[in-house]
Amino acid sequence: MIILPSRQTKTTLHFGENFIDASLLKKLSQNTKIVIIADTYFESFVKELQFPFLIIEGGEIAKTQKKKEEIETFLFKEKCGKDTTLIALGGGTITDLVAFTASTYMRGIPLILIPTTLLAMVDAAIGGKTSINTPFGKNLLGTYYSPNAILCDFQFLKTLSPKEWQNGVSEILKMGLIRDPSLYQTQITQEIIQKAILRKIEIVNQDPYDQGFRKILNFGHTVGHALETVSKYTLSHGEAVAIGGLIESHLSMDLGFLSASDFQEIKKMFSLDVINYPSQKIIEAMRLDKKNQNQEIHIVLIDRIGHALEFEGKYTKSVSEQELLNTLKHYAIS
Ligand SMILES: NC(=O)c1ccc[n+]([C@@H]2O[C@H](COP(=O)([O-])OP(=O)(O)OC[C@H]3O[C@@H](n4cnc5c(N)ncnc54)[C@H](O)[C@@H]3O)[C@@H](O)[C@H]2O)c1
Predict the structure, then answer these.
(1) Assessment of whether the complete model's pTM goes beyond 0.90
(2) Using CA positions, which residue lies closest to atom 11 of ligand 1?
(3) Would 235 disulfide with which of 124, 168, 179, 240, CB 3.0-4.6 Å?
(4) Whether residue 129 sits in one domain with residue 225
């Protein structure tokens, strides 16, 4: 049993294959009322559990104020009180949305997360961040809220599309680059998934509210998010983060922190030549990154495979436009 950081609850983490059924959920919710909010993909699975449920279509469209209100209305109509356990079953969009709703419904009700994508298992469901999107930007409304339990059933991963699988693999590779070289590989076994989850828990435990160390989890994401924006989301999150990881590794080498031989190792993992976006546009998009300070672009850097750098107690470094251009010229168009 693994305990995650929390102010109010202790989270238990459960792994296995085909182990989720109604009796386990009843036990974990200590026989309170149960309501399940599930991704469309799991409608037939959830019907068999015979608890009240609401189906929501997964994807970013799920993470809206309207959907949160829809869940709240459902909970009121079901006469759910403070002792109701809310269960999220789906990818990261569903776990983010449902966790946020659980954190505000009657000032917080018990929550169980059942992540069904690789990305949700190794990333979104771990660490207590909840959120929805707004017309003004992604993940702008949210809370920190710990679930009572997280159930990772590897059976669910068997139906993921290659694109969804890749999204999760990119996050595991990132963990390999910043924290644990044994995770820097594409042979994703159940053991590797568990290890990636434990590594994220270790990082989050040291910095539950994202004040410093947790920022290393943003490696690859500063360039990655900019690429998602510039590509108008034709690049998937996983693709963008993978390219972002490569470019931020290159930058780490160009700035004198990462050896050329480590960079060559990292490069072997990618088959990327050129991305068809202008460097200036990518930099413009990077200027909107949440980590920036005093209008400077801040990036997480590594000094070897498996280790993110610390700069006098901070885990990002400001990088000038010229330094970025020098690295981006190898990948982007001018
Ligand atoms: N809270 C956090 O700390 C955190 C961290 C990383 C990402 N996130 C969030 O996670 C979200 C992305 O999560 P995601 O990639 O899981 O996306 P998602 O929830 O949109 O799921 C992707 C797609 O996979 C489908 N799906 C889900 N499980 C499936 C299964 N087992 N088999 C087949 N199809 C399945 C869904 O219907 C959906 O179409 C983003 O909104 C991101 O902001 C949150």
Answers:
(1) yes
(2) 92
(3) 240
(4) no
